[in-house]
Amino acid sequence: MTVQTITILGATGSIGLSTLDVLARHPERYRVFALTAHSSVPQLATLCATWRPEVAVVGSAEAAAALSDLLKAARVNTEVTYGEAALCAVASAPGCDMVMAAIVGAAGLAPTLAAARAGKKILLANKEALVMSGKLFIDAVRASGATLLPIDSEHNAIFQCLPHDFDRDRIGKGIARIVLTASGGPFLNRHVATLESVTPDEAVAHPKWVMGRKISVDSATMMNKGLEVIEAHWLFGASAAQIDVVIHPQSVIHSMVSYVDGSVLAQLGNPDMRTPIAHALAYPERIASGVAQLDLTTIGNLAFQRADFARFPCLKLAYDALTEGNSAPALLNAANEVAVEAFLGGRIGFRMIDQLIGRVMDALPTAPVDDIEALLEHDGRARELTRSLIG
């Protein structure tokens, strides 16, 4: 068996740690080439001592110096580098076979795109790479012959429910709709009028998934699901009209594909990210993930309801951005990142998140995005306007 090497972008986050958990179950199959983290230096040092990667990347020179000291004291010979160029280097290095792209937000765009251009097997957990740069990213994957495998539980579920010979340019060939399921987050049954008073601690307390603070807020607003709608468009070639969102609080059915003959295929499993990670790592094989087998008899009932745009206006904003096209998804994503950061910092209220995003999208014109420089220009403009509106 050939040992595959992996770079984990965002190794200290929940996806990165879950990936390492799966890798630890199959030491004969996988070896870690590089681990990265922005500023979690002590945690990254511990991971380097365990996994002995060739390279570790952090966000700044100061973090790199601190990590180097810790590794030297532990007698770990991992090379330490820092910055965006270093992230791109480990994502595209000849010694790396595949890349787990798990850096949250726009910061993960450049290294994930570098992996695509280098023809790597990409395990995509960073949805912003597709939301911001959809056509650029897909074109890079096609040009290099890279393999793109989705890690989001919903998109991985859809991937598993599609025909093995599926082509994103042939979405209409027997496929009627893609159905993304959503837990509804922590405020599904809370009165809409009380959402103004939601605190950051309440927003990050997800009922089913253990995630980082930013993505947990996105789940509470359903922006996370909106970004997944845009991501599904680029992954599977579906139009906005072909993508439905259904609230499913039990998070047992992770998503579905509806076919023209009336068949609906669904992927079920316990809510644990190690399942899609293991699926993508070994695809097309199946390997143990450490996740318990699903026992439907203990669950009892599976419930579904339509997504309410009045309760979740961020979901509608995402559909609007996908329909608008061009740079609209990049504006949406940038405004959301700034607004969520302000909410977590206590500078704005919960319902100000969608209001800010809507104002930014109404104020800024959209245009085709032909290169990364134009994309980052739109991104920067949206961030600047959002910050000015926050004051």
Can you write the helix and strand succession as a string?
Answer: EHEHEHEHEHEHEHEHHHEEEHHEHHHH
Mean pLDDT: 94
Helix and strand content put the structural class at alpha/beta
> Low-confidence segments, ≥5 residues, pLDDT <50?
none
Percent range for helical residues?
40-55%
What overall geometry do the principal axes of the alpha carbons give? globular
Q: Any idea how many domains?
A: 3
The oligomeric state is single chain
CATH superfamily of the largest domain: NAD(P)-binding Rossmann-like Domain
Main β-sheet description: 7 strands, parallel
Q: Strand fraction band?
A: 15-25%
Number of beta strands: 12
Q: Biggest sheet: strands side by side, in what order?
A: 4-3-2-1-5-6-7
Compute the gyration radius: what is it?
20 Å
CATH architecture of the largest domain: 3-Layer(aba) Sandwich
CATH top level class name of the largest domain: Alpha Beta
Could you please say which CATH topology of the largest domain applies here?
A: Rossmann fold
By DSSP (H or I, 4+ residues per run), the number of helices equals 16
Our measurement of the CA-to-CA distance between the termini, rounded to an integer number of angstroms, reads 57 Å
Compact overview of the structure:
With 391 residues, the protein is α/β, with parallel strands linked by helices. It is 46% helix and 15% strand. The mean pLDDT is 94.
Structure, explained:
The protein is α/β, with parallel strands linked by helices and 391 residues long. Helices cover 46% and strands 15% of the residues. α3 links the parallel β3 and β4. α14 runs antiparallel to α15. The longest helix has 19 residues. It is globular. The chain starts with a strand and ends with a helix.
